[in-house]
Amino acid sequence: MIATKNFLTPEMIAQIEALAPRYPNRRALTLPALHIVNDALRYVPLEAVIEIADVLGLAPADVQDTLSFYAFFPQDKPAGEVRAWVCRSISCALRGGEQVLEHLCQAAGIEPGGTSADGAITVEAAECLGACDFAPCMLANKDLYKNLTPETAAAFLRDVRSRVTAD
Amino acid sequence: METFQPVLLEAVGVPNGHTLASYLARGGYAPLKRLLAEKKPADVVELVKASGLRGRGGAGFSTGLKWTFLPKDHTGPIYLCINADESEPGTFNNRILMEDDPHQVIEGIILSAFATRASTAYIYLRYEYPRSWDRLQAAIDEAYAAGYLGPNIQGSGFSLDIYLHRGAAASICGEETGLIESLEGKRAWPRIKPPFPAVEGLFKQPTVVNNIETMACVAQIARRGVEWFRSIGVPADPKNPRDPGSYGPKLYCLSGHVEKPGCYEAPLGITVRELVDHFGGGVWKGRRAKAAIPGGISMGLLTEAEFDTPLDFSGPSKVGCLGLGTAAVVVLDETVSMIDFLHNSCRFFAHESCGQCTPCREGTSWSLRMLERIKQGKGRLIDLDLLLEIGNTMGMMPGSTICGLADGAAWPIKNAIKKFHGEFADFIRRTNPDGWMVTEPVPALAILGSHAS
Ligand SMILES: Cc1cc2nc3c(=O)[nH]c(=O)nc-3n(C[C@H](O)[C@H](O)[C@H](O)COP(=O)(O)O)c2cc1C
Ligand code: SF4
Ligand code: FES
After folding, report:
1. Secondary-structure percent of chain B, ordered helix, strand, coil, rounded to 5
2. Fold of A10-69
3. Reported pTM
4. Cβ–Cβ of B330/A91 closer than 8 Å?
5. Which residues line ligand 2 (CB under 6 A)?
6. A132 close contact with B: CB closer than 8 A
7. What is the pLDDT of residue A164?
8. What homologous superfamily does CATH list for A82-166?
């Protein structure tokens, strides 16, 4: 038992435990626990992996093995306050999705997968977001942005920046 | 077709159509109450079997038949996993069902759990659907409060819990055993079958995996009956004893170069041309169509001349496609380069291969590298043969891989190069005038601008 935890708060642990009755074993809590930590911290550093493993009664390697498969949970540093997934799959690509992605990255001064220097935004290249009826589209945190153009993508970025510098 | 009334999409556009009150007003949950009071699980299995319902998740396997594979005398728990990972490019019908009519889905899940004797159902929902998550969770909460979920549902003695489980942006979690592994907290590596999930699935227990749209169909079969369901679609071919027919309404996702992309409900067997003209408002910008993917990118390509192929479970394979898949139709207009199309497809599969099987891991990655090379004007004609060789050798059909992702990667390659060979060859000759005929091995190029990993 690790007595004090640096990353997992009592609230996070309580959230994880609240889900435990849903599954017949604790390993099935791995993905929910990773999401709970990532939702709060915007990343899951290695130390947090060890702490999750401790809570779930697993070897840290079990949790890290699962985490590393998904390429979804950042480990080195937190993702931006807004994590924007720009679709590059076929229906979006046919309507200019790749240009939107390129434009947004350029305007934010990053490569796909990168985070802007002010920590406001991470831009990711996404595969089909299941919103091809609104191609080209983007999911930014919980919001779907539909029928994007380089102009509306630029406006979105300005909006993110003003919100982030405001608070 | 003109007179066909949407059923699965009945709630779309209805104010507050996603709420319990609206669902009840439309006759929802009444069939559930009736069946729970009057029927046994085996009767519901028979009902679904008799309807001829085939799974809507891509493989088209008979739903009722799949349920009968569960062991009869099992004493431990049986699990129902609902596949809401929906990540085949072009596909978004599950999202519409979950957002606009979540109770229809939940009623189907309760009926299916009753039929399969499952008392726990997990909905594996892709990360990218936060709105579906909220709508489903709100509907589940309403269903518990109204006594449609939880212990002793409507006094029937049958109990069911439904839990949402969030994915993490990996499309291989849509493959049913990848989904099971992911739910168990592991990397989503599809399992070698047998054993099939019905025998040993989630947490080593008998498990059924079904798609969201399949659940909506179960709810409608319970409400409207087997005769109604079988009156829609394409009957079994009497000359082919192995064709179980393609019955019922289907949600077709139409996107790409059409004026009005969207999710449209039609009887199974509608053609691409009818979809584009009747629902899609025609090809966009007054252009001509060049090709279409018939059912998600894994299914391959139809040329414009093949647009009259019926989109039922056996139609697309008659023109060399893999199958109906998810019935997601993506239209490509005359300006689209097939090299760009295939590059996009190869990049998707290189990114999504889970890496367990060498032919899939290497085949998807090398096909992407070759398309990169061709795009950069360094292609050789022999690359087309190499690509076809990759396409012919990776997948469950040639028997070299664990799951069907590799077949899905192979079909666009095979279809694009066979059906558009001239375009590929011309492009290579034009862009690589000095090297198109080279046949010696050449060094690999770094992948530029593809962000493959
Ligand atoms: C690579 C791959 C990805 C798949 N993705 C999905 C998916 O996202 N949703 C789905 O319902 N089925 C998907 N399937 C099919 C499932 O394995 C399974 O057949 C289906 O969920 C069964 O449900 P059904 O019988 O109701 O169609 C996928 C299959 C493969 C090989
Ligand atoms: S075929 Fe590809 S995706 Fe499927 S198990 Fe093998 S490597 Fe993984
Ligand atoms: S291809 Fe972009 S959302 Fe489907």
Report:
1. 45, 15, 40
2. Arc Repressor Mutant, subunit A (1.10.10)
3. 0.97
4. yes
5. B 172, 190, 353-357, 360-361, 401-403, 405-406
6. yes
7. 75
8. Glutaredoxin (3.40.30.10)
What the block records as the tokens of B111 is: 């009926």
Which ranges of B52-175 does DSSP label H, i.e. alpha helix? 63-68, 93-100, 102-116, 130-145
* Chain A interface, best mutation among B135, B164, B184, by max A CB count within 10 A: B184
Residues B131, B198, single domain; the answer is yes
What count of Cα atoms within 13 Å lies in the side-chain half-sphere of residue B243? 15
> pLDDT class for B453, splitting at 50, 70, 90?
very low
CA distance B373 to B370: 5
**Boundary (domain end) residue, out of B333, B349, B378:** B333
In terms of domains, do B51 and B131 share one? yes
Task: Check CB contact under 8 Å for A88 and B328.
Answer: no
- Tens digits of per-residue pLDDT, B412-432? 999 999 999 999 999 999 999
Task: Decide if A31 and B341 are in contact by the 8 Å CB cutoff.
Answer: no
Q: Please give the backbone phi and psi of residue A87, each rounded to the nearest 5 degrees, phi first.
A: -75, 135
The reply to whether B153 and B254 lie within a common domain is no
Ligand 3, CB cutoff 6 Å, lining residues: A 87, 89-92, 128-132, 135, 137; B 89
**Predicted confidence band of residue A5 (pLDDT cuts 50, 70, 90):** confident
Residue B134 CB contacts under 8 Å (≥ 6 apart), including other chains: none
Q: Which residues of A touch B375 (CB under 8 A)?
A: none
Decide if B256 and A112 are in contact by the 8 Å CB cutoff: no
- Give the residue on B whose Cα is nearest the Cα of A20: B163
Name the residue with the closest Cα to ligand 1, atom 5.
Answer: B174
Q: Mean per-residue pLDDT for A87-97?
A: 98
Backbone angles phi, psi at A138, to 5 degrees: -150, 140
Shortest CB distance from B169 goes to which of A27, A72, A142? A72
